[in-house]
Amino acid sequence: MSKPIAAIVGRPNVGKSTLFNRLIGERRAIVEDTPGVTRDRIYGDTDWNGLSFTLIDTGGIEPDSEDIILSQMRAQAQIAIDSADVIVFMTDSRSGLVADDTEVAKLLRKSGKPVIPVVNKCDSAGAPPDTFYEFYELGFDIDPIAVSSVHGTGTGDLLDRIVELLPERSGSDDDEEAIKVAVIGKPNAGKSSLINRISGKKRLIVSDIPGTTRDAIDTEIRTGDKKYIFIDTAGIRRSSKIKDSVEYYSVLRAKTAAERADVCILMIDAAEGVTEQDEKIAGIAHEAGKAVIIAVNKWDSIPDKDNRTVKDYDNRIRTALSYMTYAPIMYISALTGQRVTELFGQIDLVFSQSMLRVSTGMLNDVLADATTRVQPPTDKGKRLKIYYMTQASVAPPTFVIFCNNAELFHFSYQRYIENCLRNTFGFNGTPIKIVIRERGESADV
Fold it and tell me: With b meaning 16 or more CB within 10 Å and e meaning fewer, what string describes 54-93?
């Protein structure tokens, strides 16, 4: 990354995510009064006094825990520490200095990075509570800063200190084009494993426990001169299974991730096939107008495959996702890496197809041919008259058709026109939006 980096670390439930959200100016990390809510590293950009930098929120560090999830959270925090230029060490004034704070401090000293001790939950106006002064015992070169991440007090002083310690870096990747790819699917479909396989490192926590990923995580991947931002999302569960607010917000973030992506990779578990929940998840990407690749994961686990196996799976997927026949299907294994690298070619293809523009002249040639072969419908003696078609936008390709009576333009005939467009121009992997206007109306959509 070209921007300098500050990482927020500390034991669980001291307010790291609340501070992170306040400093980046949006509610990106889930905030819940429950230890262990943030598990992976969450990235966000912010700026202060003219310096733009990247902030990392991390899961709480429990130094001595042997729990598999907590140990991986600790490993993720260590990666954030290693990549950071400045470390913001969060503690809690209400509990005062505790043994885990001391252990985390030892870990941070080994990094050799500048460490800013931050004592959170100093919510009262005036002098900080007596417990604030206990944190001087940690012995860092930088004095502790009292803040309230909820009310925002002290955050200006903290940002001043962060900017003072961050190195200036020349150059920026801000103007570099990157394709944003959201990996979506129900829990335990292998989303995090896929991104780890693609990135070649354990960027994300991987576990067989469904629901491990709760936030949407961005991972930058480069292949040659191309740049991709992969967005891993929390597995989307049935609404009836969303039993707590944390999981509720996870679903919202998954939907938001799909909306801000250019391409969605829909992960389907090969052993389970397309479930009702997969159909609903696919609908999120379809309704958002995103280019889609259907990735059937865990293909290595299917026994006794032959020439008919793929054809049978294709038919089952096309039947279940009948509204998404435009999406290419790939059979992969995130575990073994089978055909994973081929995803990049498909991502490039469906993205370029979603950005495809067609001239008005070419569109109307197709339209004239289509209406000659299949006459527009009639209703009670009234015939639909189609005047012309133009493209209004891309991502998804959106076409406006002008006619004499919008009510006569039946859905089946719209589908016919869409098929003619696809047969001529492709539009592989992307939905098409058709808007019907009566003559005299605006083409704006």
Answer: bbbbbbbbbeebeeeebebbbebbbbbbeebbbbbbbbbb
